[in-house]
Amino acid sequence: MDDVRRDLWRPLQGTSWRYLAVLLPLSMVTLWGLIAWGYQLDRGIGVANIRRPVFWAFYLVDFVFWIGISHAGTLISAILRLTEAEWRKPVTRAAEAITVFALMIGGMFPIIHLGRAWIFYWLIPYPNTRLLWPNFRSPLMWDLCAISTYLIGSSIFLFLPLIPDVAQLARHAKGWRRWVYRKLALGWTGSDREWHALERAMKLMAGIILAVAVSVHTVVAWDFSMAIAPMWHSTIFGPYFVVGAIFSGIAALILAMAVIRRTMHLEQYLTPHHFNNLAKLLLLMSLLWVYFTVSENLTVWYGNEPKEMMVFGARTRGTFAPYFWTMVVCNFFIPFVLLGIRKLRSIQTAIISSVTVLIGMWLERFIIIVPTLSRPRLAAAWGSYSPSWVEISITVATFATMVVLYLMFAKLFPIISIWEFKPHDRVPER
Amino acid sequence: MGGKVSEHRWGMAIDLDRCTGCQACVAACHAENNLPVSNPEQAALGRAVHWIRVDRYYEGEFPNIRVKHRPVLCQQCDEAPCEPVCPVYATYKNPEGLNVQVYNRCVGTRYCANNCPYSVRFFNWFDPEWPEPLQLQHNPDVSIRESGVMEKCTFCIQRIKRAEEEGANNLQPACVQSCPAEAMVFGDLNDPESKVSQLAENSRATQFLEELGTKPKVFYLERVK
Amino acid sequence: MYLKGEFREKEAAARAILDLKAQGFGPDALDVFSNEPVEFAAGILDRPSRMSLVVVASALTFCLLTILFVRFTQYNYPLVTGGMPLFSFWSTGVVFYELAMLGAILSSFIWFLWESGLIRRKNPAPVPNVEPGVICLRVHCTGEQEEIVSQQLAEAGAIEVAKL
Questions:
Q1: CB-based contact (8 Å) between A148 and chain C?
Q2: Which of B68, B73, B93, B114 to mutate to test the interface with A (most CBs of A within 10 A)?
Q3: Which of A195-199, B78-82, B154-158, C133-137 has the lowest mean pLDDT?
Q4: In what order do the strands lie in the sheet with C2-7?
Q5: N or C terminus: which one in chain B shows less Cβ crowding within 10 Å?
Q6: Quick check: is A52 in a domain?
Q7: What ipTM, to 2 d.p.?
Q8: Quick one: what percent of chain A has pLDDT higher than 70?
Q9: Which residues of A are less than 8 Å from B53 in CB distance?
Q10: What does CATH list as the number for B10-221?
Q11: How many domains does chain A have?
Q12: Which H/E stretch holds residue B185?
C-alpha cells in the first residue's frame, strides 16, 4: 500500500477519545435543537419571537445563510474542475461534502419556519384529497424546485468521484464497513470504460451544477426581491446573494480544511499553497461583496425615496446600525487587511478572516431581512424584533449538526479524493 | 382570466372627514369575526389581531396638532400582492372579486403578510384564546382559526353569503353597521346606482398607496381642510 | 476466454493496444483496468460517448414535460385570478429551468451507470485484481488467438501475462 492511501485511510480507522469528546457534546446540542423544535411544534410558532410586522426572522436568516454555505462545494469545486486547476484536487471533496450537509440543514428551515410545519408536503404537487395543485407562481415553489434539484445534484456530484475510492476501501475494510463500501461501490472494477464515463459525467455535472448553484441562490434572493417591500424590491439581489453565498462558502471551506488538516494530520496534503489560493479567492469575493453592498446602499441613499430611506436609516444609523457596521468590518475590513497585505496572509489569518466572514455574512442576511420587515410602508405598523430562546437554540444547533455530520462523514469516507490526488500523468497529444 | 365572473364586485368607501377614530368598528369586527383576544404580553409583542385598525397620524407642532384617523382594513386589491406569492393558493381572488383566505389550505409561510403594503394580515401564533366568558359569544357563521394560519378582513363574507342566499337587503359588514358617524359605506361597485359607486367617483375619493398599482376596492374620501 | 497483461508504464500499455488493434481486435475486446484513471492519447482506445446528447435531450424533455404539467395543473383547478392569466410562462419559468436541470442531472447519472457498464453486466467477465500503479489490459479472445495475444502483450512490455 502506498503512502497516499496509508495517510488518507488512517483517519477512517479507530475512534479516538478526542473525536468522541467533540462528537458527543455537539450531538447533545443537536438534540437540544430538536427538543426546541418539538416544543415549537407543540406550542405553536409563536414561541419564536417573530411578530407582526417581522413575520420572517432568524429562521429565514439561517435558511439563507446555510444555503449560502452550501455554495462552498459545488461552485468552488465545479469552477476549479472546469478550469482544470490542479491545486483543487485535495480540496474538492471537502467542499462538496460541505455543500450536501449545508443544504440538508438549510433545506430544513423553510419547514421549521412554517406555521403548520406538519403539512409542509402540501407544497409538493401530487394528486390529493384537497383537489388542489400548488401555485407554481409563488417564489416559494421556485425555491422548493431549486433546492430539491440542487440537493439531488450535489449529492450525486459528491457521490460520483467517491465511487472509485469506496471500491478501493471495500477491498481492505472489514465488517459492516465492508458491506457499506461494497454497496456504495456499485460493482466498480476500475475498467477504462468506467473511468471514461466517470470523467465525462463529472465534466457535465460540473457545468450543470454551476448553473443550478447560481440559480438556487438567485431564487433564494428572489424570495425577497419579488416582494414589493422597501429595499427588498431590488434587481441587484440575485447576483448580490450569489456573490455573498460564494463568499461565505469559501470561508466555510477554509475553516473545514484547517480543522481537517490539524485533526487528521494531513499537513502534507493541505499545504499553505492551498490556503493561500483560497485566501486570495476569499479576498476577491470580499471585494466583490463590498462592491455590491455599496451599489445597493448608495443607489437607495441617493434616490432618497422616503419608504426606502426609513429602512436605510434603520440599517445604517438606527436600531440595526451596530449589526450593519459589524458586518462591514467583518466582511470587508478584516479580510482586506489580513489577506490583502501579503506579509500578513497566512493560514492563521485565513482562518481568522473566515470566522469573521461567517459572522459577517450571517449578519448580512439579518440586515437584509429584519430591518425591511420592521419598517413597512405604513408607519403605524412599524415593529421591532429580538430572538427567543427557541430561535437561538435551533440556530446554534444547526452549527453543531453541521460539525457532527461532517465528522461522521470524515470517519466513513476519505475526505481527500485519493484517485484524483494521484492519477497517472498525462501524455502529450500524439 | 379563468373562472366565472360574478355580477357583484364588493367595495367600500370610508369618509375620513366623518371618522372620529372611536374604534367602534374595531370592537364590532372582534365580535363578528371571532377574533382572538390577546393577552397583554402578546399584545406588547405586536401580536394583537385587529382585522380593522384605526391608524392615527399627527400633523403640525404642539399645541396646534391635528389628528388624522384612518381606519385600515384589507383593501381587497384587484391586483393583490399577497395572492401570487402563496404557494398553496390559500389566498386567492374569489369570483366576486374578494381577496379570500382559505384557512384550511394555509401552511403558514407568512409570505403574503410580508408582501402586503397595508400590513393588514394577521397570523395565529398560537391557538386562539378568549378570556371567560367571551368564548360563549362566538359567531357560529365564522370558523375559529387554528395555530399557524394567516387571517385577515373578509368584508364579512359570512354576511355576504347569507344575504345572497336569503335575499336580505341592507347588507353591511360589522364595521360599517357599527360606525356611529356613518363614515363607512359598503356596496356593489358593479351597480352604478349604489352609494359606494357614487362615492368612489367623488372628487375626494382616493385609493390608499395608489402608486403601487394594487387597485384596492376600498376608497378613502380625503379630509378637506 | 480472457487474457490479461500487466504493465508498469502507460506507454507500454498503449503499444500493446495498438498492436492488438492491428491484429484485428476491436475496442470492445479490450479493457484496461487500473486504480487511477489512465488517459491515453486520442486514437488509442477511444470510447465514443453520447452522454452530452442524452443530457441535453433529457433536459429539454424535462423542461417540456414541466411546462405541460404546470399548464395542466393550473387549468385542472382554475382559480379566479383577478385578471392575471391562469398559466403564466414567465412567473413559472424558474420551475421549468430547475426541472430541466434536474433532468440533466438525473440523466447524466443514469447514463454514467449505463455507459460505464455498472448496470448492464449480464454475464460478468472475470475482473483482474489490480495493484496500485499497475495498468492491466484484459483481452477477450478465442482459444486459437491465445498464443498471438500473449506474444503481443509480452512484446509490448507486459511484466506479467496470464489467463483470467
A1: yes
A2: B114
A3: C133-137
A4: C30-33, C135-140, C2-7, C160-163
A5: C
A6: yes
A7: 0.91
A8: 97
A9: 380
A10: 3.30.70.20
A11: 1
A12: strand B184-188
